[in-house]
# Entry
Amino acid sequence: MEYLRFGSKLVVRLDKSEEIVECIKRLCKENNIKLATVSGIGAVNKISIGLFRQTTQEYLTREMSGDMEIASLVGNISQMNGKVYVHLHITVTDSSYQAFGGHLNWGIVGATSEIIIDVIDVEVDREFSKEIGLNLIKLNRTEGN
# Structure
């Protein structure tokens, strides 16, 4: 992984065989990033994606391998229990140009991945919602906001 920082933005290049989520977590720890948005493109050769089944509050997981283009990688970075929390969604296309997408559990870069991280200079935490079954962004308003 290589990156350059330009003000609040980081331009990141991941190389073949690097794992996307772990690299982003490591970069956030190294740069003390507490809140940011993420966007990217590239290629992967193995991924695990998830779909949240709302009625049962369970994640369905699908692993895929082969040559895949990242048509879109979007998400955010926040905190949960004092640790970096990376929440990404991905859409990939296979060799027949069929698209698949969902929550990115992990992904192995097949050639390269180009990611932009836009840092927001505040901290936002998450907490688990029993009603929804997900870790939700916690938005606390202070007086005057």
In short: The chain is about 10% helix and 65% strand.
